[in-house]
């Protein structure tokens, strides 16, 4: 069926971008009316309104009503000149496509000249040899064209001139990326098209002012130039010398170079590539987690326990059952201790460096797993951004430097989630992916215990809600039990032989079952807001809008993925809220799920539906920066481990505050301008700089606040290796580690009495309260050998001498 007379296909389509040109449009249309009859055949004129805020749209609607040749395309907001050209050209129906500006600086009569030069060529582009612009713009344009030609090996006089006429086939050579309108002649030639350059007129601007300046286009244009140069270097070139088959072999001339075909990019393609999306977060994590990891003192009893267990493991050769001296420790499975011991074999001894390195490497593995899972769920860009978000999250960064197994468990849980989703996406090899899922669960349990099985609960609940009861068969429970049994057997059997009931009682029952719903304060209901809110700033500011946007997405696969991520994070929040034994580190496995949500949001925030939300969140960025800078600068005494993050002098605090304030201002401007990539880059760069700088700050201040290392160095000088040394009601494992000798723990004075009756001196480590208990009624037999303050608490070394010796 032929087209209706009013909609017959035109032979020529003219595309004119418009932005706030209400005064110019009537004059321009009058000039076009004098030129259009010379084209012959049918002509359509397409005006593309690039988010004008004046009366341009009303003027164009009037033209549409008066002349059927006029079409109007209108953007909801200003996108840019390239987008306007692309939208118009793709909407055009003519076999010959023409473009020009709508500011009256181009002469419509030149379109006829360009059309005549199209004989024997695929495209004719204009060159404004005499420019009627300011001297600065003329000079900058001349320099820019010279640089373009130098980099692209072209001889184009005026690459950015909007006056162009081309055949429809040339449209495929114009990639739909911002800034490409400046390189049309080069792009056409790269695609193998014949391009001629024709001198055209250029007129002074009559209304308004130019939308471009050196400031707002120089940097972006240079980056675009590098992209075009890369395309030129990487262009495929080949010749087909033989083509056999079909209806027969015919002599053929050598084909010219390959003409690239531009296709619509599939989801997840383009920049960044797979390697970049995985390596960049990994390298960032390494740069943040590895420096100075051996310089922070070990103080926390759990940290000291892992280090001493590894040290004993190497000394005794007993790798299956962790122990300290003759005391067996079945509190936790041994995988993390094994990791410390293996690293220590390479370094020569168990040190703060070898004890911390497995945690840092585990944190890096978690970042890599998050980037990989993000790529699997939403594409490479989301994977990249999610990995960067996780690496620059303060709470995650902090635990990457602690000698604790929780960060290793979090890493294995991320990788188990990746294997689980691969199983959903790949039914053909689902069995293998589910086996890998259980393998990662086995490692997680071997590092921490039953907490490593949480993904099984989360994934099972998701499959049940998503596919019903029958869907649970994909989890293959029999195979899973077999894999877990094989992985747990080496240490599980050894634990059972040493008293498996102890492990079940202390870990399964006491740490989990008995700690459910035994709150001491109502505020525990909001415990998760600390580690997942405050410790995840500034990224936690974007979690609510990310979750809402994902769950309300018009795309069902996206909603499904967000239901999975939501179930993942919510499961940990609920369990931790119900438990009375709360620790920030128990919520570490929820960080990757939140990072994936935030990464998805930033990779999609350019969409029109999210524009208003991005602008609103610019205010949150400023507020965060201002509050954080105020906390850093004000001389308010902080409590707990948080205090070591606050620089102790104004000189050390100023760089942190300056970075935060500058980032807040730039982030706000980028959000208000709807430049999500720029805003994300600002935030990520600021957090990277702050955390890298804080490494120096908190290591120094942590060692000052928890100066165990300095105290034990003094103890080593005061107490001989043959002297009796014990701890009374005071944690002793950290002293075991730094002194290199076991220190018995005494909790009752009755246990201490037999030692007091011996004729040998006795040294006791205790705190101020223990000091008072010991010296009550026998102060003359005790003397203070050394005293220090660690974390605001007094620690003393007492020496006991039997009464007769004391009298002497």
Give your account of this protein's structure.
- Helices cover 53% and strands 9% of the residues.
- The protein is built from 29 helices and 14 strands.
- The strands form three sheets. Strands 3-2-1-4-6-5-7 form a seven-stranded mixed β-sheet, sandwiched between helices. Strands 11-10-12-14-13 form a five-stranded mixed β-sheet, with helices on both faces.
Counting H and I runs of at least 4 residues, what is the number of helices?
A: 29
Helix content range of the residues, please? 40-55%
The unreliable regions are: 1-6, 212-216, 248-270
Lateral strand order in the biggest sheet = 3-2-1-4-6-5-7
Oligomeric organization of the protein chains: single chain
């Amino acid at each position: 069926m032929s087209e209706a007379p009013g909609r017959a296909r035109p032979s020529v389509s003219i595309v004119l971008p418009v932005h706030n040109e209400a005064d110019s449009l009537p004059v321009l249309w009058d000039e076009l009316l004098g030129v259009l009859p010379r084209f012959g055949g049918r002509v359509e004129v397409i005006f593309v309104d690039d988010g004008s805020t004046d009366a341009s749209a009303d003027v164009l609607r009037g033209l549409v009503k008066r002349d059927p040749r006029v079409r109007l395309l209108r953007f909801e907001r200003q996108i840019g000149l390239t987008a306007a050209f692309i939208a118009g050209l793709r909407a055009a129906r003519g076999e010959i496509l023409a473009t020009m500006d709508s500011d009256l600086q181009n002469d419509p009569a030149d379109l006829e000249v360009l059309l005549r030069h199209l004989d024997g060529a695929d495209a004719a582009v204009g060159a404004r040899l005499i420019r009627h612009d300011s001297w600065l713009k003329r000079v900058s344009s001349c320099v820019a064209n010279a640089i373009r030609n130098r980099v692209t090996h072209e001889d184009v006089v005026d690459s950015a001139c909007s006056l162009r006429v081309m055949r429809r086939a040339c449209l495929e050579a114009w990639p739909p990326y911002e800034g490409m309108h400046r390189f049309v002649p080069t792009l056409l030639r790269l695609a193998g098209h014949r391009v001629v350059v024709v001198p055209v007129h250029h007129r002074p601007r009559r209304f308004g002012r130019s939308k471009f300046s050196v400031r707002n286009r120089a940097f972006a244009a240079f980056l675009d130039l590098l992209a075009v140069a890369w395309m030129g270097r990487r262009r495929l070139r080949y010749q087909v010398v033989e083509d056999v088959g079909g209806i027969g072999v015919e002599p053929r001339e050598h084909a010219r170079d390959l003409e690239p075909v531009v296709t619509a990019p599939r989801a997840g393609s383009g920049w960044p590539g797979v390697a970049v999306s995985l390596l960049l977060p990994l390298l960032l994590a390494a740069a943040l987690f590895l420096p100075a990891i051996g310089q922070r003192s070990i103080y926390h009893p759990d940290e000291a326990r892992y280090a001493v267990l590894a040290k004993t493991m190497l000394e005794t050769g007993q790798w299956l059952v962790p122990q300290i001296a003759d005391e067996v420790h079945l509190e936790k499975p041994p995988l993390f201790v094994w990791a410390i011991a293996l690293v220590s074999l390479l370094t020569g001894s168990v040190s703060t460096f070898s004890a911390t390195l497995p945690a840092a490497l585990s944190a890096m593995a978690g970042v890599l797993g998050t980037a990989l899972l993000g790529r699997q769920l939403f594409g490479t860009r989301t994977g990249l951004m999610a990995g960067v978000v996780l690496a620059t999250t303060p709470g995650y960064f902090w635990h990457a430097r602690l000698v604790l197994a929780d960060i290793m468990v979090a890493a294995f849980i991320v990788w188990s989630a990746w294997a689980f989703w691969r199983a959903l996406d790949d039914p053909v090899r689902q069995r293998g992916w589910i086996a890998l899922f259980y393998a990662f669960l086995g490692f997680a349990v071997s590092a921490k215990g039953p907490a490593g099985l949480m993904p099984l609960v989360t994934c099972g609940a998701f499959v049940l809600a998503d596919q019903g009861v029958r869907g649970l068969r994909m989890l293959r429970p029999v195979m899973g039990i077999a894999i877990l049994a094989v992985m747990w057997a080496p240490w599980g059997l050894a634990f059972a032989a040493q008293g498996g009931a102890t492990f079940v009682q202390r870990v399964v029952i006491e740490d989990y079952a008995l700690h459910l719903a035994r709150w001491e304060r109502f505020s525990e209901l909001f415990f998760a807001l600390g580690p997942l809110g405050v410790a995840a700033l500034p990224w936690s500011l974007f979690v609510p809008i990310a979750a809402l946007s994902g769950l309300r997405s018009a795309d069902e696969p996206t909603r499904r993925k967000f239901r999975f991520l939501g179930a993942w994070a919510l499961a940990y929040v609920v369990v931790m809220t119900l438990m009375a034994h709360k620790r920030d580190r128990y919520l570490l496995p929820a960080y990757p799920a939140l990072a994936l949500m935030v990464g998805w949001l930033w990779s999609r925030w350019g969409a029109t539906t999210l524009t208003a939300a991005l602008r609103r969140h610019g205010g949150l960025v400023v507020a965060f920066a201002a509050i954080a800078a105020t906390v850093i600068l004000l001389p308010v005494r902080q409590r707990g481990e948080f205090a070591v993050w606050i620089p102790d002098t104004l000189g050390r605090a100023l760089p942190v505050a300056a970075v935060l304030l500058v980032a807040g201002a730039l982030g706000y401007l980028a959000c208000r301008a709807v430049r999500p990539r720029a805003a994300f880059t600002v935030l990520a760069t600021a957090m990277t700089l702050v955390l890298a700088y804080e490494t120096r700050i908190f290591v120094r201040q942590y060692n000052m606040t928890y100066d165990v290392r300095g105290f034990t160095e003094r103890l080593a000088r005061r107490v001989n290796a043959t002297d009796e040394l014990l701890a009374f009601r005071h944690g002793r494992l950290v002293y075991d580690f730094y002194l290199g000798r076991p220190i018995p723990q005494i909790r009752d004075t009755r246990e201490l009495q037999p030692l007091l009756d011996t004729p040998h001196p006795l040294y006791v480590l205790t705190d101020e309260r223990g000091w008072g208990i010991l010296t009550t009624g026998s102060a003359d037999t005790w003397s203070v050998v050394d005293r220090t303050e660690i974390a605001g608490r007094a620690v003393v070394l007492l020496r006991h001498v039997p009464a007769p010796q004391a009298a002497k």
